[in-house]
Amino acid sequence: MNVVTRFAPSPTGFLHIGGARTALFNWLYARHTGGKFLLRIEDTDRKRSTPEAIDAILDGLSWLGLDSDEPPVYQFARRDRHAEVVRTLLETGHAYRCYCTPEELAEMREKAKAEKRSMRYDGTWRDRDPADAPAGIDPVIRFRAPQDGETIIEDAVQGTVTVANSELDDLIMLRADGTPTYMLSVVVDDHDMGITHAIRGDDHLTNAFRQTQIFDALGWPVPVYAHIPLIHGADGAKLSKRHGALGVDAYRDMGYLPEALLNYLCRLGWSHGDDELFSMAQAIEWFDITDVNKGASRFDFDRLSNLNAKYIDASDNARLIELARPGIEENIGKSLTDAVRNRLETGMDSLKSRAETIPQLVELSMFYCFERPLSYSEKADGILDADARTRLGAVHDVLSGLSDWSQDAIEEAVKEYATSNGLKLGLIAQPLRAALTGTNVSPGIFEVAAVLGRDESLGRIADAASKA
RNA sequence: GACCCCAUCGUCUAGAGGCCUAGGACACCACUCUUUCACAGUGGAGACACGGGUUCGACUCCCGUUGGGGUCGCCA
């Protein structure tokens, strides 16, 4: 079988993290099987669908590299086809017109709630004579659902799930204004697009029963359903903005790399033995939809950050500088000079192993970018007491005499000075760090001095030595 | 409330009846490395929700309880 999967978001907001994972699993499964991955924008709700949301979703997918094999299908554009299918259903007796008003339905709902039942359309118009139709009311068209027996779905993730048909009511397929509803459109589009596997969130599980019934009424084959568990927040409750239900663009802005997010998302509800860090190429090779877990998992920023740190460390320096540049330039209020860029390029190797996110990388890099005189952090300020400043003055003199400004030469000179004066290296290294970086946290101080260059280093040391 | 689904360390998970003295990763704690901070390395603490079955033997199978989640729109 040629596998065809799809991601079918409704464009009512950004591409959130759960949607991203749904897209990822569909994409992985299609790539794994050599099938196709399609995209369908479910924009039949005209009131809530926006072009901005469509762009946000498309941007999010492309940032993650979840490319679809064909241009997206816009569901609303297919409304005539949907209406046509409803007409067929009407002709074959699988559908009927219902003249209940929204108010009457609301009443029904209220009553059901009061009686602690779930709301089910009572079938008022199911077998009623169309001649009874009240004037002036545009009817909706409902599906004539089977009332006896049960509907079974063989879910690739959830297993066999059965529900009594008496639990399901006659859903609306065509609204009073003639537009199709989701339940009908999905069935028609999945069929017409040749979808073989519908991989989607767990929240659609109950919809699968009704969609199965519609497929059956139409005599169409039902796709393989795979309902993947939802992602919860850190507290186990539904994902809210507070704990991660953000658009993928927010993760980009927070400084996460797409490959880190992808790797993390893969491990939420799916695993390949003990493998934690792997490429999408490996995931494609390993992924199978039947290996997805049934239980919901919680979103954990710590794990994402940990993964992100590894991907940052593995990224090439030019890319990291580009990613950090906007943040750096905002801090220094101007664009990067070549001199600064050079420092970043040589210093990046030891900078990047310290950062979990791009903003952290920016923060760690700033001391290479600021111009003299540096401002000192509270801790750096504390380190630079009178004694330290005196020692710095002496170190300045020693280093001024160096003919070779290499990391090794600087280290050797400083160490020699320390030993000959009976000073612990820390008493010099820490003030040196404060002087050169304005902070108390940085890569190795001799490396920093080497990267900064002779003039800049000496200048910064002199600044600190003479500071008030 | 009704229906459906789920249940291994705090979190993500490995585990397809004996391989389990339940493994790995994140987080946490200690130590090593680094006279900083990280990275890395070593070690530690930490779980099969509960109760019944089935079986010679259950984390693994069945039932129930509890807990969690989803759905119940002329939204998708």
Structure, briefly:
With 468 residues, the protein is mainly alpha-helical. 49% of the residues lie in helices and 10% in strands.
Describe the 3D structure:
This protein has 468 residues and is mainly alpha-helical. It is 49% helix and 10% strand. The protein has 19 helices and twelve strands. Strands 1-2-3 form a three-stranded parallel sheet. A three-stranded antiparallel sheet has the order 4-5-8. The longest helix is centred in the first third of the chain and has 17 residues. The N and C termini lie far apart (78 Å). It binds one RNA strand of 76 nucleotides through helix 4, strand 7, helix 5, helix 6 and strand 12.
The total strand number stands at 12
The radius of gyration over CA amounts to 32 Å
The largest beta-sheet arranges its strands as 1-2-3
Strand content: 5-15%
Which tags fit this structure?
468 residues, three-stranded parallel sheet, 12 strands, RNA-binding, three-stranded antiparallel sheet, 19 helices, mainly alpha
Topology overview:
Blueprint: E1 4-7, H1 17-33, E2 36-41, H2 51-64, E3 73-74, H3 79-91, E4 95-98, H4 102-114, E5 140-143, E6 150-155, E7 159-164, E8 172-174, H5 182-192, E9 197-201, H6 205-218, E10 224-228, E11 231-232, H7 248-253, H8 258-266, H9 280-286, E12 297-298, H10 301-314, H11 317-332, H12 338-352, H13 358-369, H14 378-383, H15 386-400, H16 407-420, H17 425-437, H18 445-452, H19 454-465
Parallel strand pairs: 1-2, 2-3, 9-10, 11-12
Antiparallel strand pairs: 4-5, 5-8, 6-7
The structure holds one RNA strand of 76 nucleotides.
